[in-house]
Amino acid sequence: FSNFYVHAEPFQFEGVQLQTSEAGIMLAKADLFGMQIKDQNHDLAKQILANSGNPRKCKQLGRSVKDFNPTAWGSVRDFIAVQLLYSKFTSSKLLKEVLLCTNELHLAEASPDDAVWGVGVGEDLARDPKNWKTGCLNVLGESLMKVRQRI
């Protein structure tokens, strides 16, 4: 389910071929703020696409978006995540089946370093929501559950 999962066959999102959903997230971030600084972020978008199969590099590139506004990004991030993950999980019969096999399980990204996309704790503690970092957003888990419901 990870945004760092590298697809053997790229999937299409917003007219581009991607190997990871991390690349799609960072591309959307660059596009959103590219309206303000078109030239630099356009080059950044090209670099993200060129590194679509290297999610760590995509994440690093996404951190260099100029004039990044967390409030503006937060207002669209969840919508983008759901659309992107829908494309990812409907592009592959196997991924779709794996997601649907989770039935009604509450999904969460177990990441001790990320309380936005995840729950702010590692896998050993993530199984019990009582252990989750206070105020965590779990964007990935919540988005996956919305996609599961939609398909």
From TrEMBL:
Pfam families: NADAR. This is NADAR domain-containing protein. Residues 1-151 form the NADAR domain. NCBIfam families: ribofla_fusion. It comes from Guillardia theta (strain CCMP2712). It comes from the Eukaryota.
